[in-house]
Amino acid sequence: MSSAVQVEDVTKNYTTSVRKGLLRREKRVVKALKGVSFTVSYGEVFGLLGPNGAGKTTTIKILATLLIPDSGKATVCGYDVVEDPEMVRDSIGVTLTVEKGFFWKLTGRENLKYFGMLRGLSGKKLNERVNDLLETLGLNKLGASDRFYEEYSLGMKARLCLARALLTDPPILMLDEPTLGLDPPSAREIRNLLVMLARNRKAVLVTTHNMFEAELICDRVAIIDEGRIISIGPVQELKRRVADKIAVDILVSNPAIGLEIMRKRLRTVIETVGVGVDERGGVYVRFTCRSGEEDKMIADVIKSLGDLKVRIYRVNVEEPTLEDVFISLTGKAGEA
Amino acid sequence: MVDWRDILKAQLFSTVCWYRNNKWMLITTFVWPYLMVGTIFGIGMALGSLEEYAERVGVVNPALYLLASSAVAMSSVYIMYSITGFVLENRWIGTLPYLLLSPAKTHTVIVFSSLPDALTSPVFTAIAIIPAAVYFEGFTGALRIFIVLLITILGMLPLMGLSVIMASTILFLKEESNIMGSVVPFILLVSGVYYPIEVLPRVLQVISQFVPVTYVVEATKIVSTYLTSEARMLMVALYMIGLLTVGYNLLATLAMTKVERAIKSKGAL
């Protein structure tokens, strides 16, 4: 697959000022990107995953030519973002935030026509494209096409945003948090559409801090934190690479010998094992093990529990989620 | 690739939609020249007389002149409000990045997106004051308003480049208030709209020579006086407008590339 987007060692600093007293202000340099590199191929959904302030939007803005990097090189569709900004803009569809960015006193259809004209569409072609998108994005069905934008719900706004990004049918899409704040059905529809677009050979770059979403739609993910990409690869590979541990939960009957003695006996088999009572009063045994060793360890624990005359109700083996990977890499809790 | 015609067409479409969807805005656009002139008349009549004003300013029909010059003054500087206001408004409602994502040069987008709004102002104003012109002077009055409209539009051209630089400065400084609020009254002061230039201090008189609105006002004055002996002065005024158009826009074009880069480096969009 050829690269639709290529980012090499891009850095970006912002200078901000902080008020110090009544008149004095102190300048501060915020290092938004500290040498970010990645590529996005045609036909894939690439997720830029990170917490707020990690540098996701800065990266999108640089790729969309709205921001000039301090150093490094970025190309989109083969065009340099600094040298050929007009050509870059001609090859991309962008959404920056779903809750604003349209004219309030224009209808959805009028807004799309206006932005279509700004992208060089006109006449019958423009009308057809706008009608197609209003239909595809479900805005006709919602009766929103000819309503003023000010009357739109967040879900409708998000759909209109995506419609605008797709106006010229660009080969590359850059979407900053495209499902932020949406209700689950709307978010699911948008996600399905993004996957479908990638299957149609478009390169889709999505930023999100929603682990669930990234896991669901992204072919590859870059985890970005404090301006640095700390891990990159297919979701499954990331999970394997980072989360080498698997969590095992075993729900058991209340042991006659007591929890403490059961814990001591189990520790002869596994060094770190947790025994406790959950919120429903059920007794559980919990341990983690390296990926690949879980079968043997579960068998050992079950044997020990059998020796203690403890009944086993349920064994739950949990694969690491992208959230586990994220927490493991950044030390920060993600948003599911 | 997208060029200025696409941008202009898009913005004209949006302007038409805007007025169609906001009928009260359309009505107030036609009413405001009368409201403004009414206020000026009211204050003027309370403090002096029309005859005195005519004598001092040197016009034949002070009412028509005042109507035309007020409209001209506001319309010719309106392009500055249009361009800077365009940038600010679009930043506030979050549309600015999407406008600048058009595959055209950034300053082309800013200028040609603001132009329909800037042009509708003098056109609407002229349409609004034509009934008054017909009332005062019949068909010739209407014709003169039409000529004044053409001069006003010409007078906007030198301010285009200057306005783009102003708009960029607003973006660069991340200044949310419209700095035009302090620039425009100064321009009006030195351009001879409300006071003859001769009564201004020497420094302001010199500055007025570089303000395009000065020549628009001068040309308007000549058109509204019927004085054929002043025809040469009208040509001089038009020549100066042309000269300032080339000068200011050339300077703005040279500066724009650097300003645009500075804005995008700072992350002000």
What level of helicity do the residues of chain A show?
25-40%
The tally of helices of chain B reads: 10
Mean pLDDT of chain A: 87
- CATH architecture label of the largest domain in chain A: 3-Layer(aba) Sandwich
Indicate how many domains the architecture of chain A comprises: 2
Notable traits:
heterodimer, A: 336 residues, alpha/beta, Rossmann fold, Alpha-Beta Plaits, six-stranded mixed beta sheet, four-stranded antiparallel beta sheet, 14 strands, 34% helix, 31% strand, B: 269 residues, mainly alpha, 83% helix
Per-chain topology:
The complex is a heterodimer of chains A (336) and B (269).
Chain A: E1 3-20, E2 24-41, E3 45-49, H1 56-63, E4 71-76, E5 79-80, H2 85-90, E6 92-95, H3 108-118, H4 123-136, H5 154-165, E7 172-176, H6 184-199, E8 203-208, H7 211-217, E9 220-225, E10 228-234, H8 235-242, E11 245-252, H9 259-266, E12 273-277, E13 283-290, H10 294-307, E14 312-318, H11 322-330
Parallel strand pairs in A: 3-8, 3-9, 6-7, 7-8
Antiparallel strand pairs in A: 1-2, 1-4, 4-5, 9-10, 11-13, 11-14, 12-13
Helix pairs in contact in A: 3-4, 8-11
Chain B: H1 4-21, H2 23-47, H3 50-57, H4 62-93, H5 96-100, H6 106-173, H7 180-190, H8 202-208, H9 212-223, H10 231-266
What does this structure look like?
The complex is a heterodimer of chains A (336) and B (269). Chain A has helices spanning 56-63, 85-90, 108-118, 123-136, 154-165, 184-199, 211-217, 235-242, 259-266, 294-307, 322-330; strands at residues 3-20, 24-41, 45-49, 71-76, 79-80, 92-95, 172-176, 203-208, 220-225, 228-234, 245-252, 273-277, 283-290, 312-318. In chain A, strand 1 and strand 2 (24-41) form a beta hairpin. With 336 residues, chain A is α/β, with parallel strands linked by helices. Chain A is built from 11 helices and 14 strands. Chain A folds into 2 domains: 40-67 and 78-241, P-loop containing nucleotide triphosphate hydrolases (Rossmann fold, 3-Layer(aba) Sandwich); 244-319, ACT domain (Alpha-Beta Plaits, 2-Layer Sandwich), CATH 3.30.70.260. In chain A, 34% of the residues lie in helices and 31% in strands. By secondary structure, chain B is an all-alpha fold. Chain B has one domain (4-266). Helix content of chain B is 83%, strand content 0%. In chain B, helix 6 crosses helix 9. The two termini of chain B are 23 Å apart. The interface between A and B is medium-sized, with 38 and 31 residues.
